[in-house]
Q: What sequence folds into this?
């Protein structure tokens, strides 16, 4: 990671870990959503059509869910990344649509978090209190790091306009 990116991510991480449970769910999902948008923009032909797909409330790829599916369908994220990011989205939605009384120890959220794939070695998981919140934070951080330079890799597969025979 370049120094300015490293500083940005360090600052984000410090702020992210201080968030309330609801805040962590919303901010963590927003970070992954932004990474997916960057990946798609890197892959698509630059222009109005790509912008219309990705921008605004009416863009078919403006939602987190659509971006996840599109990235996976185009082979820009793995099935495992898709599954984790989809769980982060479901957790975000649960927090966003319930007015109060929800936290990472709630049965529904704990259940969703238990399905997140941990990248931590078992020996480390056993030494720390690996709560649902910790599992969520790990999923956001590890998936974000995996996707950090994916836009640059997607450039190698960038779509291009073709001239087609009649």
A:
């Amino acid at each position: 990671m370049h120094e300015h990116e490293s500083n940005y991510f360090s600052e984000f991480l410090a702020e992210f870990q201080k968030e309330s449970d609801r805040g962590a769910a919303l901010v963590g999902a927003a970070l992954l959503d932004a990474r997916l948008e960057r990946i798609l923009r890197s892959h698509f032909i630059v222009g109005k059509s790509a912008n219309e797909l990705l921008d605004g409330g009416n863009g078919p790829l403006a939602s987190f869910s659509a971006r996840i599916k599109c990235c996976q369908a185009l082979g820009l994220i793995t099935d495992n990344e898709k599954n984790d990011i989809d769980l982060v989205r479901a957790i975000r939605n649960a927090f966003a649509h319930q007015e109060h009384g929800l936290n990472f120890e709630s049965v529904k959220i704990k259940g969703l978090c238990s399905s997140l794939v941990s990248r931590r070695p078992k020996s480390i998981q056993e030494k720390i209190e690996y709560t649902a919140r910790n599992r969520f934070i790990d999923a956001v951080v590890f998936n974000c790091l995996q996707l950090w330079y994916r836009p640059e890799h997607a450039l190698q597969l960038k779509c291009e306009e073709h001239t087609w025979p009649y």
User: Anything to note?
Assistant: The two ends are 46 Å apart (CA to CA). Residues 113 and 135 are 6 Å apart (CA to CA). The chain has one domain: 7-155.
